[in-house]
Design brief:
By secondary structure, the chain is an alpha+beta fold. 28% of the residues lie in helices and 43% in strands.
Amino acid sequence: MAPFPVILMPRTETSTAAAPGRIVSAAMRRRPLLVVVPLLLLAILVAAYVGYWFILAHIVATDLAAWRAERQAEGYLVSYDEPAGASGFPQTVQIELRRPVIIGPDARWRWQGPDTQLQVLPWAPFHLVFTAPGHHQLDLAGDRPQQLRLDTPAAELDVDLKTDGLAKNLAVILHQAVAAGSRLAETHLASGSVAIHFADKPAVDPSHRSLDLTLDANGLELPADVEAPLGRNLDRLHVAAEVMGPIPPGPPHEALPAWRNAGGDIEIREADAVWGPLRVRANGTLALDAAMQPEAAGTLHVAGLGEALDRLGAAGLIEPGPVQLVKLMFGALAKQAEGGGPPEVQLPLTIQDGRLYTGPIKLARLRPLDWSWLP
Protein backbone atom coordinates (compact mmCIF):
# COMPACT_ATOMS: atom_id res chain seq x y z
CA MET A 1 0.00 0.00 0.00
CA ALA A 2 1.46 3.39 -1.07
CA PRO A 3 1.80 5.94 1.66
CA PHE A 4 -0.90 8.71 1.73
CA PRO A 5 1.67 11.47 1.36
CA VAL A 6 2.69 10.15 -2.08
CA ILE A 7 -0.91 10.20 -3.33
CA LEU A 8 -1.73 13.65 -1.90
CA MET A 9 1.41 15.52 -3.01
CA PRO A 10 0.25 16.33 -6.57
CA ARG A 11 -3.07 17.66 -5.30
CA THR A 12 -1.33 19.89 -2.83
CA GLU A 13 0.99 21.31 -5.54
CA THR A 14 -1.90 21.84 -7.94
CA SER A 15 -4.01 23.73 -5.43
CA THR A 16 -1.05 25.84 -4.31
CA ALA A 17 -0.13 26.79 -7.90
CA ALA A 18 -3.63 28.14 -8.63
CA ALA A 19 -3.77 30.63 -5.72
CA PRO A 20 -1.32 33.25 -7.06
CA GLY A 21 -3.30 33.48 -10.31
CA ARG A 22 -6.45 34.39 -8.45
CA ILE A 23 -4.66 37.12 -6.40
CA VAL A 24 -3.14 38.83 -9.50
CA SER A 25 -6.48 38.88 -11.31
CA ALA A 26 -8.22 40.68 -8.40
CA ALA A 27 -5.49 43.35 -8.22
CA MET A 28 -5.71 43.96 -11.94
CA ARG A 29 -9.47 44.40 -11.67
CA ARG A 30 -9.03 47.10 -8.99
CA ARG A 31 -6.46 49.20 -10.88
CA PRO A 32 -8.82 50.54 -13.58
CA LEU A 33 -11.17 51.80 -10.85
CA LEU A 34 -8.35 53.80 -9.25
CA VAL A 35 -7.83 55.59 -12.58
CA VAL A 36 -11.40 55.86 -13.83
CA VAL A 37 -13.00 57.28 -10.67
CA PRO A 38 -10.74 60.39 -10.40
CA LEU A 39 -11.09 61.01 -14.13
CA LEU A 40 -14.85 60.75 -13.84
CA LEU A 41 -14.90 63.19 -10.92
CA LEU A 42 -12.66 65.60 -12.85
CA ALA A 43 -14.94 65.40 -15.87
CA ILE A 44 -17.95 66.18 -13.67
CA LEU A 45 -16.19 69.19 -12.14
CA VAL A 46 -15.14 70.51 -15.57
CA ALA A 47 -18.67 70.11 -16.91
CA ALA A 48 -20.08 71.85 -13.84
CA TYR A 49 -17.65 74.79 -14.25
CA VAL A 50 -18.45 75.13 -17.95
CA GLY A 51 -22.16 75.17 -17.14
CA TYR A 52 -21.62 77.69 -14.35
CA TRP A 53 -19.60 79.99 -16.66
CA PHE A 54 -22.37 80.06 -19.28
CA ILE A 55 -25.03 80.62 -16.61
CA LEU A 56 -23.00 83.48 -15.13
CA ALA A 57 -22.48 85.00 -18.59
CA HIS A 58 -26.26 84.92 -19.14
CA ILE A 59 -26.91 86.50 -15.71
CA VAL A 60 -24.39 89.30 -16.32
CA ALA A 61 -25.89 90.12 -19.72
CA THR A 62 -29.43 90.00 -18.31
CA ASP A 63 -28.55 92.21 -15.33
CA LEU A 64 -26.83 94.72 -17.60
CA ALA A 65 -29.93 95.00 -19.77
CA ALA A 66 -32.12 95.33 -16.66
CA TRP A 67 -29.87 98.07 -15.26
CA ARG A 68 -30.17 100.03 -18.49
CA ALA A 69 -33.96 99.68 -18.50
CA GLU A 70 -34.18 100.84 -14.87
CA ARG A 71 -32.02 103.91 -15.51
CA GLN A 72 -34.06 104.85 -18.57
CA ALA A 73 -37.24 104.54 -16.50
CA GLU A 74 -35.67 107.09 -14.13
CA GLY A 75 -35.11 109.58 -16.96
CA TYR A 76 -31.58 108.66 -18.05
CA LEU A 77 -30.62 107.78 -21.58
CA VAL A 78 -28.16 104.89 -21.74
CA SER A 79 -26.96 103.70 -25.12
CA TYR A 80 -24.26 101.41 -26.47
CA ASP A 81 -23.94 98.96 -29.32
CA GLU A 82 -25.57 95.69 -28.35
CA PRO A 83 -22.82 93.24 -27.32
CA ALA A 84 -22.38 90.21 -29.54
CA GLY A 85 -22.08 87.96 -26.51
CA ALA A 86 -19.77 87.10 -23.66
CA SER A 87 -16.15 86.07 -24.16
CA GLY A 88 -13.15 85.36 -21.95
CA PHE A 89 -13.82 81.70 -21.19
CA PRO A 90 -12.59 80.16 -18.96
CA GLN A 91 -10.88 82.86 -16.87
CA THR A 92 -13.45 85.69 -16.98
CA VAL A 93 -16.82 86.71 -18.30
CA GLN A 94 -16.22 89.67 -20.63
CA ILE A 95 -18.81 91.84 -22.37
CA GLU A 96 -17.84 94.60 -24.82
CA LEU A 97 -19.83 97.85 -24.66
CA ARG A 98 -18.99 99.85 -27.76
CA ARG A 99 -19.62 103.59 -28.13
CA PRO A 100 -21.26 104.06 -24.70
CA VAL A 101 -23.20 107.25 -23.96
CA ILE A 102 -25.06 108.19 -20.76
CA ILE A 103 -27.24 111.31 -20.57
CA GLY A 104 -28.64 112.48 -17.23
CA PRO A 105 -32.28 113.42 -16.58
CA ASP A 106 -33.36 116.57 -18.42
CA ALA A 107 -30.02 116.42 -20.29
CA ARG A 108 -28.29 118.12 -17.34
CA TRP A 109 -25.12 116.21 -18.17
CA ARG A 110 -23.81 113.93 -20.87
CA TRP A 111 -20.91 111.46 -20.76
CA GLN A 112 -19.46 109.81 -23.83
CA GLY A 113 -16.65 107.31 -23.43
CA PRO A 114 -14.46 104.95 -25.38
CA ASP A 115 -15.26 101.29 -26.00
CA THR A 116 -15.64 99.76 -22.55
CA GLN A 117 -15.14 96.20 -21.36
CA LEU A 118 -17.05 94.70 -18.44
CA GLN A 119 -15.25 91.83 -16.69
CA VAL A 120 -16.57 89.50 -14.00
CA LEU A 121 -14.47 86.76 -12.43
CA PRO A 122 -16.41 83.50 -11.98
CA TRP A 123 -15.16 83.16 -8.38
CA ALA A 124 -16.16 86.79 -7.56
CA PRO A 125 -19.54 87.28 -9.28
CA PHE A 126 -20.46 90.40 -7.25
CA HIS A 127 -17.31 92.31 -8.26
CA LEU A 128 -17.61 94.17 -11.58
CA VAL A 129 -14.65 95.74 -13.36
CA PHE A 130 -15.20 98.25 -16.19
CA THR A 131 -12.08 99.21 -18.16
CA ALA A 132 -12.33 102.20 -20.48
CA PRO A 133 -8.96 103.44 -21.76
CA GLY A 134 -9.11 106.30 -24.22
CA HIS A 135 -11.03 109.58 -24.59
CA HIS A 136 -13.83 110.57 -22.18
CA GLN A 137 -15.97 113.67 -22.58
CA LEU A 138 -18.33 115.11 -19.96
CA ASP A 139 -20.71 117.97 -20.85
CA LEU A 140 -22.37 119.84 -17.96
CA ALA A 141 -25.45 121.96 -18.56
CA GLY A 142 -25.53 124.14 -15.44
CA ASP A 143 -26.00 127.91 -15.30
CA ARG A 144 -22.59 128.12 -16.96
CA PRO A 145 -22.32 125.10 -19.29
CA GLN A 146 -18.90 123.60 -19.63
CA GLN A 147 -17.08 120.65 -21.09
CA LEU A 148 -14.45 118.41 -19.51
CA ARG A 149 -12.20 116.05 -21.46
CA LEU A 150 -10.10 113.23 -20.09
CA ASP A 151 -7.59 111.08 -21.95
CA THR A 152 -5.91 108.14 -20.27
CA PRO A 153 -4.39 104.80 -21.34
CA ALA A 154 -5.71 103.14 -18.17
CA ALA A 155 -9.12 103.93 -16.67
CA GLU A 156 -10.96 101.49 -14.44
CA LEU A 157 -14.23 101.49 -12.51
CA ASP A 158 -14.58 98.79 -9.84
CA VAL A 159 -18.02 98.07 -8.37
CA ASP A 160 -18.79 95.73 -5.46
CA LEU A 161 -22.45 94.77 -5.29
CA LYS A 162 -24.49 93.60 -2.33
CA THR A 163 -26.78 90.61 -2.71
CA ASP A 164 -29.73 92.97 -3.29
CA GLY A 165 -27.94 94.47 -6.31
CA LEU A 166 -27.10 97.83 -4.72
CA ALA A 167 -23.54 99.11 -4.79
CA LYS A 168 -21.44 98.60 -1.66
CA ASN A 169 -18.14 100.01 -2.98
CA LEU A 170 -17.12 102.11 -5.96
CA ALA A 171 -13.58 102.94 -7.06
CA VAL A 172 -12.30 104.94 -10.04
CA ILE A 173 -8.62 104.41 -10.89
CA LEU A 174 -6.64 106.45 -13.43
CA HIS A 175 -3.08 106.32 -14.74
CA GLN A 176 -1.20 108.86 -16.87
CA ALA A 177 -4.35 110.94 -17.27
CA VAL A 178 -4.60 114.32 -19.01
CA ALA A 179 -7.65 116.47 -18.24
CA ALA A 180 -8.74 119.71 -19.91
CA GLY A 181 -11.94 121.62 -20.43
CA SER A 182 -13.69 124.88 -21.07
CA ARG A 183 -12.73 126.12 -17.58
CA LEU A 184 -9.69 123.91 -16.97
CA ALA A 185 -6.34 124.18 -18.71
CA GLU A 186 -4.44 120.97 -19.41
CA THR A 187 -3.73 119.09 -16.17
CA HIS A 188 -1.61 115.94 -15.85
CA LEU A 189 -1.95 113.15 -13.30
CA ALA A 190 0.52 110.28 -12.96
CA SER A 191 -1.89 108.14 -10.95
CA GLY A 192 -4.98 108.69 -8.88
CA SER A 193 -8.05 107.05 -7.41
CA VAL A 194 -11.35 107.88 -5.75
CA ALA A 195 -12.94 105.18 -3.58
CA ILE A 196 -16.43 105.31 -2.05
CA HIS A 197 -17.84 102.93 0.55
CA PHE A 198 -21.59 103.29 1.11
CA ALA A 199 -23.03 102.90 4.59
CA ASP A 200 -25.09 99.77 5.20
CA LYS A 201 -28.13 101.92 6.08
CA PRO A 202 -29.04 105.37 4.71
CA ALA A 203 -28.21 108.24 7.06
CA VAL A 204 -31.23 109.82 8.73
CA ASP A 205 -29.51 112.74 10.50
CA PRO A 206 -26.09 114.46 10.70
CA SER A 207 -24.85 111.99 13.33
CA HIS A 208 -24.93 109.15 10.77
CA ARG A 209 -22.56 108.82 7.85
CA SER A 210 -23.72 108.31 4.29
CA LEU A 211 -20.41 107.17 2.88
CA ASP A 212 -16.66 106.89 3.36
CA LEU A 213 -14.52 108.70 0.83
CA THR A 214 -10.85 108.16 0.00
CA LEU A 215 -8.93 110.29 -2.49
CA ASP A 216 -5.37 109.67 -3.68
CA ALA A 217 -3.37 111.61 -6.26
CA ASN A 218 0.27 111.21 -7.15
CA GLY A 219 2.27 113.35 -9.56
CA LEU A 220 -0.38 116.02 -10.14
CA GLU A 221 0.90 118.69 -12.54
CA LEU A 222 -1.19 121.85 -12.19
CA PRO A 223 -2.40 123.85 -15.22
CA ALA A 224 -0.11 126.51 -16.61
CA ASP A 225 -2.66 129.27 -15.94
CA VAL A 226 -2.86 128.49 -12.18
CA GLU A 227 -0.74 130.60 -9.84
CA ALA A 228 1.40 128.07 -7.97
CA PRO A 229 4.04 129.67 -5.72
CA LEU A 230 4.72 126.30 -4.08
CA GLY A 231 5.47 124.72 -7.45
CA ARG A 232 3.44 123.34 -10.30
CA ASN A 233 3.83 119.72 -9.16
CA LEU A 234 1.81 118.36 -6.25
CA ASP A 235 3.77 115.23 -5.44
CA ARG A 236 1.20 113.56 -3.24
CA LEU A 237 -2.31 114.12 -1.91
CA HIS A 238 -4.23 111.70 0.30
CA VAL A 239 -7.59 112.32 1.97
CA ALA A 240 -9.73 109.87 3.96
CA ALA A 241 -13.06 111.28 5.12
CA GLU A 242 -16.62 110.49 6.16
CA VAL A 243 -19.58 112.28 4.60
CA MET A 244 -22.10 112.79 7.39
CA GLY A 245 -25.82 113.36 7.06
CA PRO A 246 -28.43 112.26 4.52
CA ILE A 247 -27.70 112.90 0.85
CA PRO A 248 -31.05 113.53 -0.87
CA PRO A 249 -31.76 112.34 -4.39
CA GLY A 250 -31.94 114.80 -7.26
CA PRO A 251 -29.58 116.85 -9.40
CA PRO A 252 -26.38 118.05 -7.71
CA HIS A 253 -27.38 121.75 -7.75
CA GLU A 254 -30.39 120.80 -5.60
CA ALA A 255 -28.92 117.93 -3.56
CA LEU A 256 -25.87 119.87 -2.31
CA PRO A 257 -27.84 122.72 -0.62
CA ALA A 258 -30.33 120.19 0.77
CA TRP A 259 -27.48 118.16 2.28
CA ARG A 260 -26.05 121.33 3.84
CA ASN A 261 -29.48 122.38 5.18
CA ALA A 262 -29.84 118.95 6.82
CA GLY A 263 -26.63 119.59 8.78
CA GLY A 264 -24.33 117.53 6.59
CA ASP A 265 -20.58 117.94 6.85
CA ILE A 266 -17.35 116.11 6.03
CA GLU A 267 -15.26 114.63 8.82
CA ILE A 268 -11.67 114.44 7.59
CA ARG A 269 -10.05 111.55 9.43
CA GLU A 270 -6.66 112.00 7.84
CA ALA A 271 -5.12 114.05 5.09
CA ASP A 272 -1.56 114.53 3.98
CA ALA A 273 0.09 116.37 1.13
CA VAL A 274 3.57 116.97 -0.24
CA TRP A 275 3.73 120.17 -2.28
CA GLY A 276 7.06 121.81 -2.95
CA PRO A 277 8.74 122.54 0.42
CA LEU A 278 5.51 121.89 2.33
CA ARG A 279 4.71 118.64 4.15
CA VAL A 280 1.24 118.63 5.72
CA ARG A 281 -0.78 116.20 7.83
CA ALA A 282 -4.26 117.28 8.89
CA ASN A 283 -7.63 116.31 10.34
CA GLY A 284 -10.80 118.27 11.02
CA THR A 285 -14.32 119.11 9.86
CA LEU A 286 -15.41 120.77 6.62
CA ALA A 287 -18.90 122.18 5.95
CA LEU A 288 -20.72 124.79 3.85
CA ASP A 289 -22.12 128.01 5.31
CA ALA A 290 -25.34 129.78 4.38
CA ALA A 291 -23.65 131.29 1.32
CA MET A 292 -22.47 127.84 0.15
CA GLN A 293 -18.88 128.78 1.03
CA PRO A 294 -16.52 126.50 2.96
CA GLU A 295 -16.06 126.70 6.70
CA ALA A 296 -13.66 124.42 8.50
CA ALA A 297 -11.87 123.71 11.77
CA GLY A 298 -8.94 121.38 12.15
CA THR A 299 -5.36 120.76 13.15
CA LEU A 300 -2.30 120.82 10.91
CA HIS A 301 1.09 119.21 11.40
CA VAL A 302 3.34 121.16 9.07
CA ALA A 303 6.97 120.83 8.00
CA GLY A 304 8.69 123.30 5.69
CA LEU A 305 6.32 126.07 6.73
CA GLY A 306 8.93 128.82 6.76
CA GLU A 307 9.92 128.47 3.11
CA ALA A 308 6.31 127.93 2.06
CA LEU A 309 5.21 131.14 3.80
CA ASP A 310 8.01 133.10 2.14
CA ARG A 311 6.84 131.89 -1.27
CA LEU A 312 3.17 132.61 -0.53
CA GLY A 313 4.04 136.06 0.79
CA ALA A 314 6.19 136.86 -2.25
CA ALA A 315 3.25 135.89 -4.49
CA GLY A 316 0.97 138.25 -2.54
CA LEU A 317 -1.31 135.43 -1.37
CA ILE A 318 -0.59 136.11 2.32
CA GLU A 319 -0.07 139.51 3.92
CA PRO A 320 3.52 140.21 5.06
CA GLY A 321 2.54 140.82 8.71
CA PRO A 322 0.93 137.41 9.29
CA VAL A 323 3.83 135.72 7.49
CA GLN A 324 6.32 137.02 10.06
CA LEU A 325 4.06 136.18 13.01
CA VAL A 326 3.52 132.61 11.85
CA LYS A 327 7.23 132.16 11.15
CA LEU A 328 8.04 133.30 14.70
CA MET A 329 5.42 130.90 16.04
CA PHE A 330 6.85 128.12 13.88
CA GLY A 331 10.35 128.71 15.18
CA ALA A 332 9.17 128.60 18.78
CA LEU A 333 6.88 125.58 18.53
CA ALA A 334 8.58 123.36 15.94
CA LYS A 335 9.53 119.89 17.14
CA GLN A 336 11.42 117.05 15.57
CA ALA A 337 9.06 114.80 13.65
CA GLU A 338 8.58 111.23 14.82
CA GLY A 339 10.78 108.87 12.85
CA GLY A 340 13.08 111.67 11.72
CA GLY A 341 12.60 114.26 9.00
CA PRO A 342 12.38 118.06 9.18
CA PRO A 343 10.90 119.76 12.26
CA GLU A 344 7.11 120.03 12.42
CA VAL A 345 4.78 122.52 14.02
CA GLN A 346 1.20 121.84 15.09
CA LEU A 347 -1.17 124.64 14.16
CA PRO A 348 -4.91 125.18 14.56
CA LEU A 349 -6.58 126.06 11.27
CA THR A 350 -10.01 127.55 10.65
CA ILE A 351 -11.90 128.84 7.63
CA GLN A 352 -14.70 131.28 8.36
CA ASP A 353 -16.40 134.08 6.41
CA GLY A 354 -14.10 133.48 3.47
CA ARG A 355 -10.91 133.91 5.51
CA LEU A 356 -8.18 131.48 6.50
CA TYR A 357 -6.92 131.68 10.08
CA THR A 358 -4.33 129.97 12.23
CA GLY A 359 -5.37 130.72 15.78
CA PRO A 360 -6.27 134.45 15.88
CA ILE A 361 -3.98 135.29 12.95
CA LYS A 362 -5.68 135.92 9.61
CA LEU A 363 -3.55 134.39 6.88
CA ALA A 364 -5.50 135.08 3.71
CA ARG A 365 -8.83 135.84 2.10
CA LEU A 366 -10.07 132.90 0.04
CA ARG A 367 -11.53 133.15 -3.42
CA PRO A 368 -15.29 132.38 -3.30
CA LEU A 369 -16.40 129.03 -4.68
CA ASP A 370 -18.51 129.18 -7.83
CA TRP A 371 -21.16 126.44 -7.97
CA SER A 372 -22.78 127.63 -11.17
CA TRP A 373 -21.22 124.73 -13.10
CA LEU A 374 -23.22 122.14 -11.16
CA PRO A 375 -25.77 120.39 -13.41
